[in-house]
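Translate sequence into C-alpha cells.
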Amino acid sequence: MSAQTVHANCLVVGTRGILVRGRSGSGKSELTDLLIEAAGVKGNLGVLVADDRVYLSSLDGQLVARAPETISGLMEVRGRGVVKMLSMAAAKIDLLVDLKPEGAIERHPDSALGCEKMDGVPVPVCICQENRPLESTRLIRWSLRELFPASPDYI
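Result follows.
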C-alpha cells in the first residue's frame, strides 16, 4: 500500500467519505465546513478527515484517505486562522467532488456523475463550481442519492 499526497480535503457525512479537490482558493475548506455543519443539523455524523492535504492509497479495492499527522484535526478558516476540529484518522472515499472554475463546467452534462481512477480505484466524480458552497451542497446531495438510493440523506 503506497500513499500519494493530493491537494484536497476529506470528510465523512453519515457513512460516506467525500474527497473535495480544487485549486488553492477554490473553497474546499468552506464547502467541507458547510457539509459537516449540514450533516450535524440533520442529526448525522459530520467530521473532518483532512484539510488541504490528503494521503490517498488503495486498500482491498477501495480508496482510503488519511490526514498527514502534522495537520490532523486542523482546518484553515480564512479570516480566522487554523482551528481545531473533531476528526477521524481515515475514511473510505465514496465520492470525489471536483471544484472547477465556472467556464469549465457543462450546464447540462450527458451524465451527472463522472468516474476517475485514483490509485487504481474507480471513484464517482461530481463536478461543482468553485466558491459556490450552497450550490455544491445541493449537487453533492443529489449525487449521493443517485449513488446510494437506499441510504438516508446525510446532508
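Note: The chain has two helices and ten strands.
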